[in-house]
Here is the input.
Amino acid sequence: MKAARTLRKLQHPQTLIGYVRQFLTPQVWKQAREAVPKKRRNPRWDLQPLVLVMMAMTWAAGDSQAEKFEKARGFYVACHRARKRPGKTLQGFQKALGRVPLCQLRALAAGVRQEIHARLGSRRLVDGFEPMGCDGSRIECPRAAELERRLGKAGKNDSAPTVWLTAFVHLPTGLLWSWRLGPGTAAEQVHLRFLLSTLSPQAMIVCDAAYMGFELVGAILRSHRSFLFRMSSRVDLYTLEKVDLKDWTEGPVLYWPKFAQRKGLAPIQCRLIRVPAKAKAKTKGKAKSAVKRDVWLLTDVLDPARLSVATAAKFYRWRWRNEGLFRTYKRTINKLKLSGRTVRQVHREAELSLLATQILLAHADLTLRSETTATTGGPIISPRKVLIEIRREIETATKPKVKSYRERLTGCRADERKQTTPKATREWPRRKPHKAPKPPVLHTLTEEQKILLNHHMGAVG
Here is the structure.
């Protein structure tokens, strides 16, 4: 029996449900079931059909939730003919989904993450680090009374209630790694601290200037992980001797805010890296040429041999793949607005739709990216093409096919073309123009600060 299971693992799946079972393995289901004690016996909707139908609803095409439910339920029944039939109504499905504890869904996501980690293997590392980008985005919700009361306002007056999503993305591949949800007013730095446990010790956390904070940096270092943050003029750094930013390339600095000095906290030794700006980008039409600025990065990796300027610039350039993940989730998967009308429904819909997005990207990328292929090339799949093939598989689950799902999946590679024109060709109305962060402020340590620094260094020694 064990040999048969091992053989099935080594074989390449030929169907969509076969690929899903690569990540939602029996061990992952067991891990999720053990997260909560079993209370009800033989429910009409068990955990497995609930999750699989909700994932299929995320992928399926349809004008309404009822239409998507019919397609998703039919796909589940076609793939599990020998199992008990789940409920037939959308209302019953939604009630059963609302009873699933969130801790059970998070245990399921943790199991899928472990499967992705194992299948990536050494490909998850680049130059000795595992680059992980973190960013956040708001997802709009219906204007239901409960959602307006409990989620509050996070944007302009009379804006719809929103959910804040903070997500980690494996930057070399662009795969969704882990996430956390909260109200639209949630603090993304707090979310990042909760997600630290989902990262490996080799993780290099790459963020923009909005995430910079003394407490957050301290939490990352205490978790024995590295960081690479973009700097802005809101950050004060210290050097032992007076230096000029115009001549700066890279070097050691101290991150020591004034409130930390007043509290008697020790400074954090960091390395400030300057990535020179490229030439101005020429645009067509009426759009003005974009002004390029130097990018200033701060990291805890002090040795340039471990993290060179070129590698740091490459990691931060990859951070744009966070935005690509949000575009895939909101536009391709069509989750620009959630459909749940209660907080329970919204959270469970978001958790399972994110899990469906993660499996969509992971199964296609790991199939088309061979073990010998380097991850420095970035994402190699087109999420839109993969979604089209998934929808075809859902709608023709009971019909014979000329080509298997695996054969059709090989045609879902991303178009290999080089970007030669700016992504934004004109200024869109109601959108604030982007302003690049200014360089950080460098201070020279005073004699009193040097004495306090020696006191901290002596205490550490």
